[in-house]
């Protein structure tokens, strides 16, 4: 049994902005079930939601701050969560990265530098918790300074850094770096400096013992200029220490057979009940109720990464077909406005919900026929996996985890029962439109469509295999 300190900036259901929270809320649970001793460490944000007891454990002193460590559980599980409680940094309304008005926190560097420093104290067993991890498993830039700071310690635990997205690097001006009082030895081009800026992510990429990312394809892609955001050289230099492990999902929470968020539960033997979810979705969103019309769903952060611009370019042609489009997301204001324009012109075909809505997300996965995910890049992606589990056939671009989790429908994959969706290559409106048309044609062949749904629903998306791959990595460290 290994002791693992799992470092993250968000974890479902405590607080979530995207897929990192899904992973942080489910991988530790799987590791505990496989016998590892895991503690999650994360900041104690004001917006954390829990019904579990929270209790005081200890106080540590870092960089002139007295910071409390609180203990709770991941709701509904036995997984221990340690909350880094510094009210001056985290006791404000908003999410981990944006304030309540949607603006990035102006003191993000200070917030996460403090979080990293406290994590190092915990990792070195200097915080009176009487527990020293064998492995510190860090995730994304918010935890990047942990491997860097630990590299300066004697008798330190081993470190793993998992990249969930290379597009977010935690880059800050030199002046911010100076205000943080970080050890000077780390500041050089082969350390945490990146073109005279402070790069949190480099702390993880340079100093961790192993780097992983969330799909095998993305592990290759980030070694190229297109996906590496200037760090492709460093990543290919460290390629012997870099690997891709595909994300699993919480198969209890995303389970069409038991999901309390959907009006009608179903499984692959009762697929005939799925359309009741479509009717409920159409009713809730005030779209014409029609069991036969294909409903295309999308749940996403509305950002460049997700290929929203491709969808906007395809929408005029899509809307010439008999279909309905149901979108849920938030993010870039100009994407939101452009999408609203289509609702104004086609209120009977397009529904947009701007905001974050967990229940509606489940209802869309259950009620839609087709799921759209034309990402320009996608480290793993979870919604295309949830879709397959809910018999909702995904259309995805062949990149990152989308390429690794969806099998395109061609005669061969249809006959060997591996086809689960529609995959296109080029990031262009034409290529996306062609995939949409392929899907619409097959939708009119109910027998073949059902085959795609069942192929997708039968796949094993649980964490077991991937959690075991992490355990193998841990055991080699
Ligand atoms: P990313 O982490 O890049 O946003 P993923 O596909 O890995 O993409 O994970 C996104 C997660 O966030 C999924 O669980 C998805 O259902 C959820 N999600 C994204 N936007 C919303 C929203 N507006 N409302 C509810 N859930 C959302
Ligand atoms: C990131 C990526 C997404 C991935 C998620 C969880 O947010 O954008 O592709 O699924 O992390 O690993």
What does this structure look like?
The protein is built from 19 helices and 18 strands. It is of the alpha/beta class and 477 residues long. It folds into two domains: 3-248 and 463-476, Glycogen Phosphorylase B (Rossmann fold), CATH 3.40.50.2000; 268-457, Glycogen Phosphorylase B (Rossmann fold), CATH 3.40.50.2000. The strands form three sheets. The chain has a nine-stranded mixed sheet with strand order 3-4-5-2-1-6-7-11-12, with helices on both faces. Strands 15-14-13-16-17-18 form a six-stranded parallel sheet, with helices on both faces. The chain has a three-stranded antiparallel sheet with strand order 8-10-9. Helix 10 crosses helix 13 (358-367). The structure holds adenosine-5'-diphosphate and alpha-D-glucopyranose. Adenosine-5'-diphosphate (ADP) is lined by residues 18-19, 22, 299-301, 328-330, 356-358, 361, 380-383.
């Amino acid at each position: 049994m290994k002791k693992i300190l799992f470092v993250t900036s968000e974890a479902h259901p405590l607080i979530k902005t995207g897929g990192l929270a899904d992973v942080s809320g489910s991988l530790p649970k799987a590791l505990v079930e496989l016998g590892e001793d895991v503690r999650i460490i994360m900041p104690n944000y004001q917006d954390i939601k829990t019904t579990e007891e929270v209790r005081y454990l200890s106080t540590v002193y870092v960089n002139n701050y007295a910071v409390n460590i609180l203990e709770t559980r991941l709701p509904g599980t036995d997984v221990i969560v340690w909350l880094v409680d510094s009210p001056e940094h985290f006791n404000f309304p908003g999410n981990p990265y944006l304030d309540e008005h949607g603006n990035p926190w102006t003191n993000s560097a200070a917030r996460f530098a403090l979080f990293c420093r406290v994590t190092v104290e915990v990792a070195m067993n200097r915080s009176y918790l009487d527990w020293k991890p064998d492995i510190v498993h860090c995730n994304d830039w918010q935890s990047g300074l942990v491997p860097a700071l630990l590299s300066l310690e004697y008798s330190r635990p081993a470190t793993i850094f998992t990249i969930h997205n290379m597009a977010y690097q935690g880059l800050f001006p030199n002046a911010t770096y100076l205000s943080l009082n970080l050890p000077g030895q780390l500041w050089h081009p082969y350390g945490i400096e990146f073109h005279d800026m402070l790069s949190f992510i480099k702390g993880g990429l340079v100093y961790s013992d192993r780097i992983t990312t969330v799909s095998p394809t993305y592990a290759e892609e980030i070694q190229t200029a297109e996906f590496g955001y200037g760090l492709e050289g460093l990543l290919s230099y460290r390629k012997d220490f870099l690997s891709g492990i595909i994300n699993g999902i919480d198969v209890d929470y995303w389970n069409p057979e038991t999901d309390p968020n959907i009006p009608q539960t179903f499984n692959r033997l009762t697929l005939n009940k799925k359309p009741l979810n479509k009717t409920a979705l159409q009713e809730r969103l005030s779209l014409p109720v029609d069991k036969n019309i294909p409903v295309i769903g999308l749940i996403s952060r509305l950002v460049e990464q997700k290929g929203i611009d491709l969808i906007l370019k395809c929408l005029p042609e899509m809307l010439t077909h008999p279909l309905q489009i149901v979108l849920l997301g938030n993010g870039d204001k100009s994407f939101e406005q452009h999408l609203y324009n289509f609702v104004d012109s086609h209120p009977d075909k397009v529904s947009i919900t701007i905001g974050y809505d967990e229940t509606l997300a489940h209802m869309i996965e259950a009620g839609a026929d087709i799921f759209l995910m034309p990402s320009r890049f996608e480290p793993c992606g979870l919604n295309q996996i949830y879709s397959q589990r809910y018999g909702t056939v995904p259309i995805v671009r062949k990149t990152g985890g989308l390429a690794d989790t969806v099998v395109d429908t061609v005669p061969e994959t249809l006959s060997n029962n591996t086809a689960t969706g529609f995959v296109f290559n080029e990031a262009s409106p034409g290529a996306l439109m062609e995939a949409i048309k392929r899907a619409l044609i097959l939708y009119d062949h109910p027998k073949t469509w059902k085959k795609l749904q069942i192929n997708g629903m039968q796949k094993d998306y649980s964490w077991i295999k991937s959690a075991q791959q992490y355990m193998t990595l841990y055991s080699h460290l």
